[in-house]
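Collaborator request log, item 7. Partner lab (contact: R.S.) asked for a structural prediction of Extracellular solute-binding protein to inform their binding assays.
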Amino acid sequence: MIRIVAGARGLRGRETRSLLRPTRSLSALAAATALAVTAAACGGGGDSADQPNLQPTARTAEAGVAGVNGATASPECAAKVKNLTFYGITALSDAAKNGKAYMEKAHPGLTVTLNEAPNYVALLQQLSADKAAGKQADVAVAGFDVLPVFAKQLGARELPANLLRSTYDQGFLKLGQIDGKQIGIPAQVSMPVLIYNLDVLEKAGVDPKTLTTTTGVLAATEKIKAAGGVQPIDLPTGEQFAQWYLSTLASSKGVQIQNADGTPNLDDPTVIEAAQFLAKVGSYGPQSDSPSANGLLRFGIQKQTAMVGATVASLAAGLRYIREQGANGFRAGVLPFPTLPGGTQHPVAGGNALTVLSTDDCQRQMATELVVSLLAPDVVAAGVEAVSYLPVDTAAAEQLASFYQEFPELEQFKGLGGSLVAAPAWPGSRGGEVPQALTDQVMRAMTGTDPAAAMREAQAKATELTAS
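Returned to partner:
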């Protein structure tokens, strides 16, 4: 989620420290990592534990539940509950501190204990171990793709949407639903994007407006290839981005890589069409592994690529860094990830939701109050300032007017909650292995394997994993 440090850019006050202002001593690799280090944790859904902890920081923010009917715990429960536990990833730790400060001030005598894990996988392991040991868990962060685990194995409680502020964008709620129940409230939401070097495109005679479809992207790559000088396109495949591209492309034509009954749908002709586009992209040169440590390094610093796939969460940091290079920089633009021909924008969402795991009623009331406090407009706005997620609150979006003036390229992503598609949530004890298995097969297609054969293998592997 967001990294929130007092005095840094993000959650409270009006400090103006830059999200990413690399010093001259910061290495190119470290700078590139800082541009998109949140990609794995909040975008494609992968594991970024091996990356340097250089996430953008954020100002502190006003957390609270003022004016939210029903979100405040009853006086009896407030007097009874003396301890709340919060489980989050390291990138969320400082955000959680805002809720902790609010709750402990609003309820004297209450202690909010914050538990951190480096990534979603480690977080699930810690929660499962603590549950088995009988330890209390009240609020936890859940990646969208593992919400079924929180609902069915960790006992996440339903959170009625009427407990939220009227300004919360209801279009995002579907991303936190499991079997029709609101298990989590989306807090930070991302989507895949395509960033381009306008200087290179113009030199090659490419109009950026043609990059909205895969057909247009491939036509552009041919022109850029003919012009020479740089690799036309790089779609980094690591941190499970490869399967994120695949599912987003298929979704643009109304086809999901997972059937309604939870079984895989990877041998569908539209999914194969998506894999064929990705395979063609792979033929234009080596695709980066890590979006954070390689993809933006090659694009933004080394200027080796004309177009690069990324998450919307890396845009503000990336654009700011490129601009701050002055004469050594270039004109960069951004578009939503392209659709298949005839498709429309329905990207698969990345990101996370806040869940309540309390079993006791009073603990649940206090946990719910903590969740709602972390969705305060100022908290949401600060998070977007630091890491350019889609704003889940309309009041926060209005508060971000100056941010969107600084980054007009990001205006196009506002209000997209209704068009997003929920991430596949794979069943079975080994369902969590499916995203990486799919990524592996997409990577095979991008390095020479027949795309249809790779998708048949992906179908077989996903079937095996979800049946266990």
